[in-house]
Amino acid sequence: MKKQLQYSLTLIFLIVFSSNTVLGQDRKLRKAENRYNQYDFVDASKIYEKVVASGYVSEEILQKLGNTYYFNAKYKEAKEKYESLMELNDELEPIYYLRYAQSLRAIGENKEAEKWFDRYAKIVNISEEDFSTSIDYNQLIEENSDRYKIKNLSINTTGIDYGGGIHQGNLVYASTGDSIKKSRLKTDSWSGLGYMRLKGVNIEEADSTSFDNLGNGYKVKGDLNSKLHVSSACFTKDGKTMYFTQNILLPEKNATQAPHVLKIYRARLSEKGKWENVEGLSINSNSYSNAHPALSPNEDQLYFVSNRPGGEGETDIYVVAIDKEGNLGEVKNLGDKINTPARETFPFVSQANELYFSSDGHLGLGGLDIFYVKINDDNTYGHLLNVGTPVNSKFDDFAYTVRENTNKGFFSSNRKTDEAKGYDDIYTFVETKQIKDVLSTTICGQVIDIQTKEPIHNASVSLLNRDNEVQNTVKTDSLGNYCMEAERFKHYLVRATEETYDADEQMLETKEEKHEVNFELRRNKVPLEPGQDLAKVLNIPIIYFDFDKSNIRPDAAIELEKVVAVLQEYPFLKIDIRSHTDSRGRDAYNMALSERRAQSTLNYMVKRGIDKERLTAKGYGETRLVNNCANGVPCSKEEHQLNRRSEFIVIE
Fold first, then answer.
1. What is the model's pLDDT at position 49?
2. What is the third-level CATH fold of 528-650?
3. Following DSSP, what letter does each residue of 205-262 receive, concatenated?
4. Helix (H, G, I), strand (E, B), or coil: what is residue 150?
5. Which fold has domain 42-125?
6. Which residues does the UniProt record annotate as the domain OmpA-like (predicted)?
7. Can you identify the CATH homologous superfamily of domain 440-522?
């Protein structure tokens, strides 16, 4: 503002410099300063309201006013302007039907809002449901496939082998051993196999890629004897504490107890290398199962699986806090973003706080699939992603484990392939590429001035959902550029705003990984200073006259009323009316025609009550072309039209 004021006063000072006395100069300077401060900025929306109040209405004016109210959350006024707009023209750009519907919804006229949203949706071919489109899940799984090299481990038997806790360079897993004909272990009457026991195998000394010749593994020593199954071990980083799952057979005392339940136990490693001081966790119950423990990176939380009452489905993943003394806190369900009405099981949390688990409730390839989700610092979750093939298959895939600070690990599967050995086998993997967030998209673009093409710094670009709720907002940089993250496979409104510009928005369906959305905004508040063209401020591209005529047509009168309203709003403002033609026709004829049109424009304003002393008018014919379309130069109709223009230049 200060710079604009200085510029205005400097120009005025130069104009009055030839005055005879310093006193006269001071009076004019003070008068000019008062006038400048009096009209300061021209607000196009305010001027348009005055034009409508005078009885002059056009489609462009109603669009402008409707949008102004809409973008400023004045939905009742927006609704009225959009209704008037549709009375003038019922075949509008689809975005106006959407804005009308949103305005109706905002003031509680939901039934009518749905009607107009349906009209919008039909034109642009989208579904109203959640303002989103259906997702091709097979495509998404494919985008994260082929990121692994996998191999069946040599330790697998013809029975069941699964799991993979890492303890002091050893893989600790559950195994029944070979099938019953080769096993001396007691058998499970349901599977006909031996009961599962914890076994270990040294993986530090083996080839970390192939793990060939690992041998048969060793039995984990300690007080881990159970009449039934023992499995799913995880360990603290110091190697001194183990959490594991054990199957318990209960006496059938009452109907509330299940005869078989799974419980989680904790054991300590003795100096002799044996697991002792085994204790059941306080979260256990005889009425439901808890199983498959996994520690958080800081070891202050324990994730586990349970079928306890109040869950989302058959089995859910839960988490419980562990204090420094090892006491457990309140059990919390991970919620419906993770848990489904089906089965979620075998959680594992990496050092990067990434949760891997298996589910047959989320869309996958078949059976249990392994999924990935990032746990954010505020304990919210990122996008749920299928890890893809070859780790996942149409069979059950589970017990995913990553070795700390590596891209290598293990998972288990009951897939039926040529290399499969038993009912469940353990596979090793090397992850060759990081998982890609296929449910996220990046929206970038630039916001510029529609007239000057200069970038607009510090403009706000917002992302809005179906209910007109802002999901994200970013600011443009010094080059007018912006970028933001968004959900993929959704419909959004992307809106650009800046205080001195008309807002604009575009509909975007985020099908791709990257999108470009650019904006050209028109100023709505422009400083009134010498040289400013009101035609550009008020979006007056041309004052139309009938061929070879200079009388004002009704459609031209609407445009001129914008200038009249400015002059009425700022009574000390003076302007110069300039009329221009294109190069077609004789030079002298064009000069005379433009002069008649300039004077006709001035006379119209005088008839509308503007003091003639505030107006000057001149025709310039084809002497001030804005492009190269001079005499003899072939140009299109559109190029010639750029030269046929009226200007309303502020001179004081």
1. 85
2. 60s Ribosomal Protein L30; Chain: A; (3.30.1330)
3. SS-TTT-TT--S-EEPPBS---SS-EEEEEE-TTS-EEEEEEEEE----STTS-SEEE
4. strand
5. 1.25.40
6. 532-652
7. Carboxypeptidase-like, regulatory domain (2.60.40.1120)
DSSP-assigned letters across all residues of 390-459:
TTS-SS-EEEEEE-TTSSEEEEEE----TT--SSBEEEEEEE-S----TTEEEEEEEEEETTT--B-TT-
CB-CB contact of 426 with 164 (8 Å) = yes
The crossing angle, in degrees rounded to 10, of helices 2-16 and 22-39 is: 140
Cα–Cα distances (Å) from 596 to 550, 561, 581, 615, 643, in that order, read 6, 19, 12, 15, 17
Whole-angstrom Cα distance, residue 556 to residue 608?
Answer: 14
Q: Which of 552, 651, 569 is nearest to 610 (CA)?
A: 569
Single-letter amino acid code for the residue at 473: T
pLDDT in tens, 519-541: 999 888 777 788 888 887 787 76
Please give the structure tokens belonging to residue 287.
């009425």
Q: By C-alpha distance, which of 223, 215, 217, 243 is closest to 231? A: 243
Exposure string over 223-255, b if 16+ CB within 10 A, otherwise e: ebeeeebbbbbbbeeeeebbbbbbbbeeeeeee
For the beta carbon of residue 551, count every other beta carbon within 10 angstroms.
12
Paired strand residues for 381: 375
Structure-block tokens of residue 88: 């003038």
CA atoms of 43 and 537, how far apart (whole Å): 9
According to DSSP, the β-strands at 440-449 and 514-516 are parallel
Question: Mind listing the pLDDT tens digit for each residue in 596-636?
Answer: 889 988 998 999 999 999 999 999 988 888 889 999 899 99
Question: Distance from first CA to last CA of the chain, Å, rounded?
Answer: 17
- The 575-579 sheet, strands edge to edge: 615-619, 575-579, 646-650
Residues in contact with 35: Cβ distance below 8 Å, sequence separation at least 6, in sequence order = 572, 573, 652
Helix-helix angle 110-124:94-106, to 10 degrees: 160
Q: Which CATH class is domain 145-431?
A: mainly beta
Which 3 state secondary structure label does DSSP give 502?
strand
438: its two tokens: 């296929």
> What is this structure's pTM?
0.67
Q: What is the DSSP letter of 492?
A: E
